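so my prof wants the structure for this chain in the tokens format not the other one, which i didnt know existed until like an hour ago. anyway here's the sequence
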Amino acid sequence: MTSKITSLFKIKYPIIQGGMVWNSGWKLASAVSNAGGLGLIGAGSMYPEVLKEHIQKCKKATDKPFGVNVPMLYPNIEEIIKIIVDEGVKIVFTSAGNPKTWTTFLQEKGITVVHVVSSVKFALKSELAGVDAVVAEGFEAGGHNGREESTTLTLIPMVKEKLKIPLIAAGGIATGRGMLAAMVLGADGVQIGSRFAASTESSAHINFKNEVVKAEDGATHLTLKELAPVRLIKNKFYNDVQELYKQNPSIEQLKEKLGRGRAKKGMFEGDLDEGELEIGQVAGLIHEIKSAADILNEIVEEFTLVKNALC
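here's what i got, hopefully its the right format
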């Protein structure tokens, strides 16, 4: 299964595991890489020294390529970048910021850079900034999301129409059928988050994983757009936010309601009432917690079967 993405990252399958906060530690990243995909460590939920430890453990757990996902909105970004360079990481996915900021610096260190976007406009800006590939993420995706509400079905062909560099599709993809659909629409590979969040190796709390498995269609909603759009499972915290919206709240009131550590409380500590439970709409297709290798193999097998049936 060769594509521009398998060539770019030197991996067997054009499947990238999303770098999800509180889900994507070294165990998940190394398991996905060992199974033939590209595992990503999610730096967004890690202090610099914790990230360093995860990178070092991942290097011991796999001899295959892996990368680090770096949301650029965090204050200790320079320290995080230094650790990535010092530890010899060769692939970085950046998000939530201007790709111009770090792309050239990282590439000069021999690092392949991919930027995550949610619109054609920012895909083109990323290409102009010199990134090696772009992840175009549709509205269906979990966690922090774009404001445009463009679905993957529409976003991928619109980005493909304008982009010259490799394109990775994300948002609403958890199966081989979904992967095939994305690639028919023009993607060179896929990034899958939610399905791997409910894996054995995910660092998320078992309560959160079980809640993902229980989720059905309509179980999630994109909210808090005034701060940073985030797709959440509807729980007590989500309902409290919706009640607050009825009062036409200020930005400060929304920030006060959100507080600090809300995602950690939900996904890592397993508080299903007061925590943020970030997951994609595709949670309705996730019915079982499985190993990352089993998940990846099932996706590849279904992709191949459906593709051959259509041919």
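also thought this was worth mentioning. The mean pLDDT is 96.
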